């Protein structure tokens, strides 16, 4: 017997763990705006500051990064009158449901998470417990809104799958169908933008090398320089996409061009077949500047009025809380806890 009808709802988040990258834009932000504008489902977007502190953050920088990320959302097309836009720590339901999910998720599931292995590296005894538990909090982020669709980059697929497992196990353990089983939505030409220095590693805002990524706040010169220095191979661009097999760096630049231009990777390869990177890279740099500079100037304009950003976040938190609070209350009841 269904307790609730799970109406479609979109949730996704980004950590204020540094400045936004081209990977965040193509894999997440750009698609968040498109989803909002399609208007067929309510959209909830979150600055996940509680995830950011799984790795130590300078408090002042975290504050600034939270506002700057909010500006990045708005500059990329998220309209706070159409989407709910807020920061995670302002809505207590994330932490409350996160604890329940820490008790639902199994240690073995968490040990299989590749992001934890990547981020912890050889240092796994010394990273925070929060970094390990992160996917259970992410499940709470999604399920505290009963979200059904989660637009993310390829790197987050495993975490959304874990969220599905947590929803299913909670429902089974308590004999309910209270939580929906959400779908990852991974689409577009650049679902996994790679580092400009290493085509086997994803571009990340927390990568120590600034040359590995394009930041949304980079100016035209920085973008051109980074693309010019991006690692490639000596071969020209092939006639067809198959010719990019085993050439991860070249494939990455083609994917970026495709995502920025709205063409398919096949079309881009056909257009530049036989050309050298000496020709392709400047064309890519021009395209990137053309697409990113309006976003970057809008971000700096918005950052001049931090009080307005705070008002937007506070309003978004109120709207988010109105959805989350009754869901947490019901989850507590299902579990048999008297609180909330
Ligand atoms: P960090 O290095 O701190 O983890 P990040 O750059 O990976 O930062 P997140 O906040 O973890 O950014 O992820 C925000 C969203 O951006 C997620 O949906 C994620 O899948 C997407 N994303 C992150 N990096 C890329 C990338 N290189 N290509 C495509 N999507 C990406
Ligand atoms: Mg990440």
TrEMBL record:
Its main location: cytoplasm. Keywords: Aminoacyl-tRNA synthetase, ATP-binding, Cytoplasm, Ligase, Nucleotide-binding, Protein biosynthesis. Its EC number is 6.1.1.2. A motif ('KMSKS' region) lies at residues 202-206. It catalyses: tRNA(Trp) + L-tryptophan + ATP = L-tryptophyl-tRNA(Trp) + AMP + diphosphate + H(+). It holds the Pfam family tRNA-synt_1b. L-tryptophan binds at residue 141. One of its GO terms (molecular function) is ligase activity. It is found in: Cytoplasm. It is an enzyme of class 6 (ligase). ATP binds at residues 15-17, 23-24, 153-155, 193, 202-206. A motif ('HIGH' region) lies at residues 16-24. Coiled coil: none annotated. PANTHER family: TRYPTOPHAN--TRNA LIGASE, MITOCHONDRIAL (PTHR43766:SF1). Belongs to the class-I aminoacyl-tRNA synthetase family. Catalyzes the attachment of tryptophan to tRNA(Trp). Homodimer. This is Tryptophan--tRNA ligase.
